[in-house]
């Protein structure tokens, strides 16, 4: 194993011509990626996967979980939400959050996205348990509002015949986009005259 130096390795890097071996428990210490999604191709630290989303943290950006500074770029230890591109966190922090929240409640802490956030985290080797026992906070309704995602159009004049709360599929005229910075306001693509290929929008306040 290139991490601990012991024998009995079970994983070989999938990069062509790379003969790097490591144990599964050594992957995190060695900066390796062993995705929890098919085809489960594993990579050593030299050839590990990186997040495809194009984003870089602004100066003095902090982790949303521990509030300590993150690195000035994406890395094995610094990750970003692929949906809003504004939620940054340390790998260790988001892994601890995933273990506590479990699959049923795991989501981006800023924009509340699950559709792209969960697959991205699984691909980047964040383990998300699928236990049936709910998180402790689900035993009360104190935090119910925190898990609710904003779901209405806040444009000055909503043009959607279905009303402000009407939501359609991605890429369509009446798809509801949330502010990429605060996620507290939304607009239908058509109400703000956004093009079909626009994947983000910011409210007037931000």
UniProtKB/TrEMBL annotation:
User: Which segments constitute the PHD-type domain?
Assistant: 1-48
Q: Which SUPFAM superfamilies match?
A: FYVE/PHD zinc finger (SSF57903), RING/U-box (SSF57850)
Keywords of this protein's UniProt record, alphabetized?
Ligase, Metal-binding, Zinc, Zinc-finger
Residues of the RING-type domain? 63-112
Pfam families recorded: PHD_G2E3
Ranges annotated as spanning the membrane: none
Q: Which PANTHER family match?
A: PHD FINGER PROTEIN, PHD FINGER PROTEIN 7
Q: What is this protein called?
A: G2E3 ligase
Q: Which organism is it from?
A: Podargus strigoides
């Amino acid at each position: 194993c290139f991490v601990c130096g012991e024998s009995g390795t079970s994983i070989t890097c999938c990069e062509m011509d790379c003969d790097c071996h490591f144990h599964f428990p050594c992957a995190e210490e060695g900066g390796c990626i062993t995705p929890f999604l098919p085809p489960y191709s594993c990579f050593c630290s030299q050839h590990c996967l990186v997040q495809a989303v194009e984003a870089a943290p602004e100066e003095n950006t902090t982790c949303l979980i521990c509030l300590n500074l993150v690195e000035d770029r994406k890395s094995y230890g610094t990750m970003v939400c692929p949906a809003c591109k504004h939620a940054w966190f340390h790998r260790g922090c988001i892994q601890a959050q995933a273990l506590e929240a479990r699959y049923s409640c795991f989501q981006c802490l800023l924009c509340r996205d699950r559709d792209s956030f969960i697959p991205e985290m699984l691909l980047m080797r964040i383990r998300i348990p699928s236990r049936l026992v709910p998180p402790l906070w689900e035993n009360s309704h104190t935090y119910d509002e925190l898990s609710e995602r904003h779901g209405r159009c806040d444009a000055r004049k909503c043009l959607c015949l279905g009303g402000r709360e009407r939501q359609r599929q991605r890429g369509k005229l009446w798809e509801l986009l949330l502010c990429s910075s605060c996620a507290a306001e939304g607009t239908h693509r058509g109400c703000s005259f956004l093009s079909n290929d626009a994947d983000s929008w910011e409210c007037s306040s931000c």
